[in-house]
Amino acid sequence: MRVSVRTIRDWVKKGLIPVVPVGAQEYRFTKKDLDHYIETQRQIWQPRRRRSTGSRGRSNSSLPEQDDA
């Protein structure tokens, strides 16, 4: 998932991901639970669209136009 151990621990403390504790600071996750968490985050998160410089009334003629394709 490319997140830090600290982030995973925070998610566990917040109850975002169900875990089975195995020792003092070790947890086991099921693939099903992780897949579910990832899918719910994909549905919530929407990428921010870039604003063109023209929408704010400014332009920088020294930069080439960018295509937002």
From TrEMBL:
<feature type="domain" description="Helix-turn-helix">
    <location>
        <begin position="2"/>
        <end position="42"/>
    </location>
</feature>
<dbReference type="Pfam" id="PF12728">
    <property type="entry name" value="HTH_17"/>
</dbReference>
<feature type="region of interest" description="Disordered">
    <location>
        <begin position="43"/>
        <end position="69"/>
    </location>
</feature>
<protein>
    <recommendedName>
        <fullName>Helix-turn-helix domain-containing protein</fullName>
    </recommendedName>
</protein>
<dbReference type="InterPro" id="IPR009061">
    <property type="entry name" value="DNA-bd_dom_put_sf"/>
</dbReference>
<dbReference type="InterPro" id="IPR010093">
    <property type="entry name" value="SinI_DNA-bd"/>
</dbReference>
<dbReference type="InterPro" id="IPR041657">
    <property type="entry name" value="HTH_17"/>
</dbReference>
<dbReference type="GO" id="GO:0003677">
    <property type="term" value="F:DNA binding"/>
</dbReference>
